[in-house]
Design goal:
The complex is a heterodimer. By secondary structure, chain A is α+β, with helices and mostly antiparallel strands. Chain A folds into two domains: 218 residues, Rossmann fold (3-Layer(aba) Sandwich); 123 residues, RNA polymerase II/Efflux pump adaptor protein, barrel-sandwich hybrid domain (OB fold (Dihydrolipoamide Acetyltransferase, E2P), Beta Barrel). In chain A, 22% of the residues lie in helices and 37% in strands. Chain A is built from eight helices and 20 strands. In chain A, the strands form four sheets. Chain A has a six-stranded mixed beta sheet with strand order 6-7-8-3-9-10, sandwiched between helices. In chain A, strands 13-12-11-14-20 form a five-stranded antiparallel beta sheet. Chain A has a five-stranded antiparallel beta sheet with strand order 15-19-16-17-18. In chain A, helix 2 packs parallel to helix 4. The longest helix of chain A has 18 residues. By secondary structure, chain B is mainly α. Chain B has one domain: MetI-like (MetI-like fold, Orthogonal Bundle), CATH 1.10.3720.10. Chain B is built from eleven helices and no strands. The longest helix of chain B has 34 residues. Chain B is globular, with a radius of gyration of 20 Å. Classes of the chains: A alpha+beta, B mainly alpha. Chains A and B meet through strand 6 of A and helix 6 and helix 7 of B.
């Protein structure tokens, strides 16, 4: 799906937003990442048609829609504050959306969706009896049932704890695949993006600064390295999970989900560099990599060394200046990277 | 209480019911329109609607009387359409009551609408509900307490109307002789016992109305965060 936009809004001489780009949105979630106050919410509201007095150009699959009222757009926005209708119970809130389906897809088995998103038991409750997290679940499902071509989610899971958010994100991914739905999701949580975003739009000071694959965007200026890994063995003879990244095999703790590919994140502070292998050592992962780059870390408290293990796996290691001198770091140098099984975080 | 006294009571109830009905029909869209207004004209409009609260009813009645006279444009148009005059008629005092009680109906409804968070309106719009759809499925049910208060106040206020009716309606039994006028007449004729009975009826009616009204006043949960 193609989304072309030129959006400008000025709140004061100092605060001006200017979002201009042509994006190809894949099925699934495209994440929007940026500091608060960078204009993400205003941008989503404009896409949804809620700031009609703001001029701009918006094309959805080559159809010009900038002058359409929100109810005429093939775009649905789920706001952070949920805004469940207080005079209707949960089920009526959901049916409000079902009855006004925008026609790109229709969900026939509502009860299944309610169960997957954990709101089946809430259906007959009044909205005022729900917790913040429950409200967000209901608002999310209300948005999903609206059958729009593009769904906008503004911090949809901010009131949920980590585990619940992860479950819901998996459910969103699954839903997108099934109904060929595109989602633009604003979230502060890197974990949310690691879990579902396929593409990431980075926003800074009211402008889009970059758009790229989730892995490459997450790796930018980060102390944490991300890769896509294939689950090779869910549980090997030692009780560990074996992941493959290119030709490298990594050992991590058993993972609870049933995904075939996962996004892994390894923090540079968890990676040890060594000139020799240590067979008599507790560390689960010892692999060789080639030094390609190094620079002082953000806080200038050490060196951040970047190493390539293979074409799919780049890792960073944070070391002190003393270690940097001791190892005599140089380009092309081959070193052993060591990190514990628990240092690999799977999403 | 004599037959003519009861007639005055029923006439008053009839006047209040019809006026309240008309007031809701014009007051709800008016309240919605004003609550969505952003221009400076809003203040002017709000002031015009609030005028009957501060204006002496006799002043309002005086202007209405002039407007109703067959020599005026409105009065003569009415005569040519219906064949009767507005002044000293039941229709005339209904019209007077509608103007007189308008602020009591519009203001509570408007304030309920203004307290409704914009987000509900926007969320429903994004879910594909057009404006008319949203007005009926969202706005009206969400401001129902404001509607109730508006209707109740409009009704109660019309019950107590005196000056306007006196000016434009006179004292025609079964036509314009409402409760307050009948009481006034009894007092003037030193028929204190009949005045007592009618006053007691008026007191009980108004008190009951207000008790019913305030018992629904529990702050609704969703108007403010």
């Amino acid at each position: 799906m193609k989304l072309e936009f030129d959006y400008q809004e000025s709140f004061s001489p100092e605060v001006t937003l200017s979002f201009k780009n042509t994006l190809t949105l894949p099925v699934g979630v495209t994440g929007i990442l940026g500091d608060s106050g960078s204009g993400k919410t205003s941008f989503l509201r404009w896409l949804a048609g809620l700031s009609l007095n703001v001029l701009g150009k918006l094309h959805l699959d080559d159809q010009q829609i900038s002058s359409l009222a929100p109810d005429q757009r093939d775009i649905t926005l789920v706001m952070q504050d949920s805004f469940l209708f207080p005079h209707m119970n949960v089920e009526k809130n959901l049916l409000f959306s079902v009855k006004r389906n925008k026609g790109s897809y229709q969900v026939n088995n509502l009860n299944t969706i309610y169960k997957v998103f954990g709101i089946y038991d809430l259906l007959h409750q009044s909205v005022s009896s729900l917790s913040g997290g429950q409200r967000q679940r209901v608002a999310l499902v209300r948005g999903l049932l609206n059958g729009a071509k593009l769904l906008l989610l503004d911090e949809p899971l901010s009131a949920l704890d980590k585990e619940n958010a992860a479950d819901l994100l998996s459910a969103i991914s699954f839903f997108c695949q099934k109904y060929q739905l595109r989602v633009l999701m604003v979230s502060h949580s890197l974990d949310h993006h690691r879990k579902v975003s396929k593409q990431i739009i980075r926003v800074e000071n009211g402008e889009i600064t970059s758009v790229g694959s989730a892995i490459s965007e997450l790796n930018k200026n980060s102390d944490v390295c991300h890769s896509t890994a294939t689950v090779h063995k869910r549980k090997n003879i030692d009780g560990l999970c074996e992941l493959e990244v290119g030709d490298a095999v990594l050992y991590t703790l058993p993972i609870t989900n049933d995904l075939e590919t996962v996004t892994i994140a390894i923090d540079s502070h968890d990676v040890i560099l060594s000139q020799t292998q240590h067979p008599q050592c507790s560390v689960a992962n010892q692999i060789q990599g080639e030094v390609i780059n190094w620079k002082p870390s953000k806080g200038h408290d050490g060196m951040l060394v970047e190493l390539r293990v293979n074409s799919s796996l780049l890792l960073k290691s944070w070391i002190t200046y003393k270690s940097y001198q001791k190892l005599n770091i140089d380009e092309g140098q081959i070193l052993w990277l060591q990190f514990k099984a628990g240092a690999i975080h799977c999403y | 209480m004599t037959g003519s006294d009861w007639q005055a009571v029923f006439l008053t109830l009839q006047l209040a019911a019809i006026s309240t009905g008309i007031l809701l029909v014009i007051g709800i869209p008016m309240a919605w329109w004003i609550s969505r207004m952003q221009s400076r004209f809003k203040v002017v409009l709000e002031s015009i609607i609030a005028l009957p609260i501060v204006l002496p009813p006799t002043v309002l009645g005086f202007y209405l009387l002039i407007m109703f006279s067959p020599n005026s444009a409105v009065g003569s148009a009415w005569v040519s359409i219906t064949g009767s005059t507005l002044a000293f008629s039941f229709t005339g005092i209904v019209l007077g009551s509608v103007i007189y009680s308008l602020p009591f109906v519009v203001q509570p409804i408007q304030s309920a609408m203004e307290q409704m968070q914009q987000g509900y309106w926007e969320a429903a719009g994004s879910l594909g509900a057009n404006k008319i759809d949203r007005f009926f499925t969202l706005v009206l049910p969400m401001v129902w307490k404001g509607l109730l208060i508006g209707a109740g106040l409009g009704f109660a206020h019309t019950l107590g109307e005196f000056g306007v009716v006196l000016m434009i309606g006179g004292n025609l039994p079964g036509e314009t002789r409402v409760l307050s006028i009948a009481i006034f007449e009894h007092v003037e004729a030193f028929e204190y016992e009949r005045a007592h009975w009618l006053s007691a009826v008026a007191l009980i009616l108004s008190f009951t109305m207000l008790v019913l009204l305030y018992s629904t006043q529990k702050q609704s949960l969703w108007v403010k965060k």
